[in-house]
Design brief:
With about 180 residues, the chain is an all-alpha fold. It contains 4 helices and no strands.
Length: about 180
Amino acid sequence: MKLESEQGQKWNNALVEADKKLFEMKQKYWEEQNKKDKESLEYAKAQTQSVLEVKQAHFDLTQTIREERKELKKQYETARDSIPYLTEAQKETMFSEADYKESMDKLDSIEKKATKLYNDYLDKISNTSEEEVYLLDSITKEYKNQSALLEKEYTTTKAQLAVNKAQKELENAKIANKNVAIL
């Protein structure tokens, strides 16, 4: 009877040991899965943050360009509507359809570059793997730097447009002074 009891105790100990090992394996699996889930969430968060930053920078630039387009359109329409009241000399120095088209073409070019840049960087972000999560910050910073260059190009274009307008206004003022002097 003692033999059976010893045998039973060994089996019981073996079952307890097997249960412990099974529990430890399940716990290890759960911890590893939890760690992978956390890494996946961190990656998703970092990727989403990068996408949001790129989208915000793109939106800001394109919105600025759209606002400038509206302003140019208003100025062109105002100039166009005043044509019947101008002398030939004044008509030649006003903000013309050619000036409008040239300015819009420059803005279109910048916006197309911005959109291409935006799409390229969104692709870069979406093509990073969880193992490359460390690249997301540098991709985002690189996009922002490239976007800043486009903003400078826009600012330069806008400044050049302002210079051109000022030259035309100066020419109009000279013509007006000449007409006053003639009278």
